[in-house]
Records
---
Amino acid sequence: MKRWSLLSLVALMAIALAVSPPPATAKDTLVVMQEAEPVGLDLMQSSIQTTMSVCYNIHDTLFHPQEDATVLPALAEKWEKIDDLTWKITLRKDAIFHNGEPVNAAAVKFSYDRINSEDLKSPNKGKLSAFTDLNVIDDHTFTIKTKEPYAPGLYMLGYYLPIVPPKYIQEVGNEKYNTDPVGSGPYRLKKWARGDEIVLEAFDKYYGPKPAYKTVIFKANPEESSRIAAMLTGEADVISGVPVLQRKRLEDSGKAYLTPQMGVMPYMGINTYEAPFNDVRVRQALNYAIDKELINKALFDGKAIICAGPISPRTFGHSPTLKPYPYDPAKARKLLKAAGHPDGIEARLAYPTYMAQIQEQAEAIAANMTKAGFKVTLEPFERAVMWERYKGKKHQLYIYWWDDAPEPDRYMYSLFNSTSRDYYYKNTAVDELLDKGRTVMDRAERAKVYAQIDEMLYQDAPWAFLYVVPEVFGVANDVDYQGRRDGFLNMRYAKPKM
Amino acid sequence: MGIMLQYLFKRLWHTVFVLIGISMISFFFIHLSGDPVMLMLPGDASTQEIETLREQLGFNDPLYAQYLRFAGNAAQGEFGNSLYYKVPAMALILERLPASLELAAAAMLIALVVAVPIGIVSAVRRGSMVDMGSMLGALFGLSMPHFWLGIMMIMLFSVKLGWLPTSGRGSLAQLVMPSLALGMSLMAMFARLTRSVMLEVLSLDYIRTARSKGLKESVVIYKHALKNAMIPLVTVAGMQFGFLLGGTVIIETVFAWPGVGRLVVQAIFNRDYPLVQATVLVLSVIFVAVNFLVDMLYMYLDPQISYFEDK
């Protein structure tokens, strides 16, 4: 008996001795904690937010996209339109890759060919499909052409065409480049301890403003409460994925503040190809049936932004005159009656189980709908199954979401142009306008086109429009960092607070 | 020793069948549960693109052909690249395995070191305050969800007291909370098990004989009773250890512990076939190996147990 007690005592003491307070991070080091570890570090090979976030610290593109969907120079120094289909772009001369290779027009050409190559299977290839041709003029000048005039062109290049080093990639190949990337951004990869952390260090020959922090460490922590705890103990300086109901706690702690970033825009999609939802009155009834204000108060602490049409109220091109469908169950019933459903309608509502706060949203929406005469069966689906059924046109009503990106073409074209996803809705007038929206180069004129699309879809109601839930980052009080609408954690913009 | 080897081979032979069975079940289940191609491509990918990728990955072949190809490659230790991480699946698992082993071993150690003495004392002083107190504690330990316990520990030891880091792996300090949280329910289970087994053993004839021979009570308990009581304990501990390697997803999530459990769950969500299959196989091999070791331990603990017919 004594031996056992002694043994356990010794073990406990050993543990107690080994335990030390969490290591304080040095002031020139910034620890960023995200929900998930990157799957790779080649920006061309991933379209996952948490992966791209790390990548944008390592890789630079031609332009810095802005929140109003314009661009500022990055690797490109100046640019001009030669005609409606051609941009002539001049690179800055002082940019080099982390391994010393020069960033020149040949590297841009190599990058362009690489993202379009069959081998790479880049998920971002489609985002650049408007471009047809890139021609090198001299060491630092090239032209890039599009099939049609393409208004969001520079913005898309700014996000989706990282410039990569030709020599290094030819040497190591795509697989190794994904784990040991060399970019031209403000940070270079120092170490990737898989499952643990990614250590980036400032690149001393970076052409742009020197980043304020010498070292940036990206960690992953999938559990939201643990991320917040790490912020409170000072183990993390910046965290992503702060759920709505924990935000106040973080703010009240006196240790951190919140900064807005991308928003998540959930919507209820409708299969307009099948009865009874092929009738616009039934779809409008759905829009009147949902009490968005109440859901906002109950689930999002009043922080969500109610949507009128499909274009986020924060996005360039939304119609300023639209008012959200009000909550009016009586009107919904009337519309259902007019459409020949006096006894109401049975409906299936699918939702993906992995989305944040989705269960509550789906239940609230279903309860609302019941009051308006819909009998709702909820269909929760696991991620892959939800997606497969979505693509297989098997949903009747479904909740999905998109981020409220600054550039309307990015999501509107994907979701509503029938040449892209002709799953549940087709409207040739909208198709034409979306095509036109890409080609109008004048900003004010272009805004009008999207406003018109917004209004048309509002009337035709291929969705029940819901809300934008703004996401936030948590930032430690001694760090100055403003989140951006693209939702990427680009640490070149962080600096110590004086 | 010849008989021993014979037994070993027999076990190995069984193991091969077990592994084939497991690989088949995991292969067919994961393949029938959804298509990774849909997840790998962006939403606006054309049907053409989807088909091309399916073809490239060989998903258009009949399922049995895909299985045979997988089994053939697996036999040569080749599991292919993870569809998601784009690096060899086996390398990913081997990177994570030490973390899982470390956590499982620490949790097991903590649980055994605390639980066995408690179980013995409770049995010897059956009905006493110590017995009731520790069994009540064990009930608590069993009933507390890992998830809740983990968060509460973080709140107390990291946020309030500032003694321990909230998450991650590397230092001993980072191992304390995850292994305690994980060990807690094991502790409870082992304490209850030790107590009940000890009670049973202590009532047996040979213990009475030992006592009547005038042996010291401590010798009776530790030398005679405990050794026999260890057998079920070793069995359960062995099974639990195998389970801990892949089944600690919740603890791994709460403490951002880079173990195999989280990797495989994520792989299942992503329909990352190669990664799921490789993980399942690796975990099965370990599970079978641990069970084999447990069997060997039996023989040491109780010479009456034998696997050799012609003893």
---
Amino acid sequence: MPIISPFIIYILRKGAFIIATFFAFLLVIFALPRAIPGNPVAALLTQIFQQAQANPDTVKAVYRKFLEEFGLNKPLHEQLFDFISRLMGGDLGTSIAFYPRKVADLVASYLPWTLGLLIPAILVAWAIGNLLGAWAAYRRRTRVDNALLPVFLVLSQVPYYWLAMILLYTLAVTARVFPVAGAYPPAMSPSLTSTFILAMLHHYTLPFLSIVIVAIGGWAIGMRVLVIYELRSDYVEYSELLGLSDKKILGYVFRNSILPQVTGLALSMGTVMGGALITELVFSYPGTGYLLFRALSTLDYPLIQGTFIILVSTLLVANLIVDILYAYIDPRIRVSYVGD
Amino acid sequence: MSEPLLLGLGLRASYVLRIGEVRAVDGVDIEVPRDAVVGLAGESGCGKSTLVNVLLANIRPPLRIKSGKILLDGVDLLEMSREEVRKKVWGVKVSYVPQSALNALNPTKRIIELVKDAITQHTPATDQEVVSLCKRRLEELNLPTDSIHKYPHELSGGMRQRVIIAISTLLNPRLLVVDEPTSALDVSTQKQVLKMMLDMKRNRIIDSILFVTHELPVLRQVSSHVYIMYAGKIVEYGPADSVFFNPLHPYTKALMYSVMTPEPETRERGLVAIPGEPPSLLMPPQGCRFHPRCPYVMDICRSSEPRLVPVGEGRGVACFLHHSEVAS
């Protein structure tokens, strides 16, 4: 018998793997933006001095000053060391494009909008998709399935930004039922009043729907196949011949089919963060996708790094949570890795 | 003679597919008497498992019943709705133990949860009562009582098979239908499973067993009557001793020569494989379905199909070699 509980060992092993992955990721996210030609300070200065004719010497002095300020004149290995040691201290650095705002503050002000948009959208799509998929599978070879399957297939192949633009054009631009841009009316400032919340939901509807509708298709197709496969398993037939009701058996099948979908859910929690980038651009929604777009277009190294660190950390943590959930839901995994 | 427990009459059932009709059960009469172990033997793909499903009235598309009756205690199961059969027959009067015990149990439920879900469909018993019923039965059968609180994967194959048999028969059904219950088990485990089923019959937990297998030696140990099935039809039936001692149909003989038996003749003869393959049930051969593989094939076998005729001693055979009108 091990002295430490097998569950702790399981978590530690998963945790160690995640930390290793994170450090590998840090190297990549440090190197990739710097591999893009150009540098952020030049980009910023071009912007600043575009209008005003400036003395070339002044420009050069400012340029040097900025390089020093951001440590971009140091050799790469020192920059990397600075980056990681600051990160360990919880400092994501200062944005170049939004100078002098801190990266952490910027992310903190944009992230809630993304989370508020994506988490409900993913969960709703996941729930509806799985229920519809299971229903289609249960009614296989009937009109229900014959009608639903093509809908799922089309939805799953629709580009989400295309749907976003269609929704925006029809319901916002043409019909004027919904607002065209933003997360709330520009004249309002965020508060917990009912007027503000209603206005916010009004802005929320289209981006939310554009993500949900497309995501339903994929989940439903996956679940339909899983349930059809599961319905053919021996235990379904045996349970039936024991006299179990359809309802009970469907309960078994649903639970067993949903296991792979739980993994999928966590993964999409992580990846759709970046994937909503275009949705946020289409609706000018002030989320991390929008922020990331700004960061990339100005080559803002600290902001790119900071945004990605937040996104990737979320993905990794989501994975860890799924591993733990999985051990909880599936007794076979619980026994093999965790102990009963 | 009392009325048989289960009587299948003129059963025809097919898988109706786009490419055609697979006649997996093609005119079968079968009888399971009370207090008997009836063996049903044949190669893989001969229609045994389909016949089992038909006898259980477990008919699902693409399988369709073309004709026939299944009388259980005189009541025709094919006249009942699936719902009615599920409530009143399965698990109550007739229980079924599937081919693969490995996958027969829901992998994510403790066994007792399945038992509760099943028993409460048939009786108003509380969960507590189900648990104690289950434990009493396991004790009676010398199985570890804690096994019902485990997940299926935590039991060995043989234990799982015995537990399945035990929970299938909690409500003392009259008939236990077992489909290849021992095929996946090693010989010593097989023996335990067989012994347990026979004990259950002796203790009147069940009256009769319909034992489906391709393993003739197993049937020889346990059965009182046998039916030999080939290509969707019964080719020979009779009391087990008599059929095994003196097989009449060339297919029965071939089946017996293809397995190990303890008799010295087996050693002298060696094992003889049956030449050829079982025919496609989509397009069965003309005449006797066994004629392309039969060492005794005659002209008549190629053109007309032998009926299953009684030959005395409660035996019957479908072969022109034994039809008096042809032989004479």
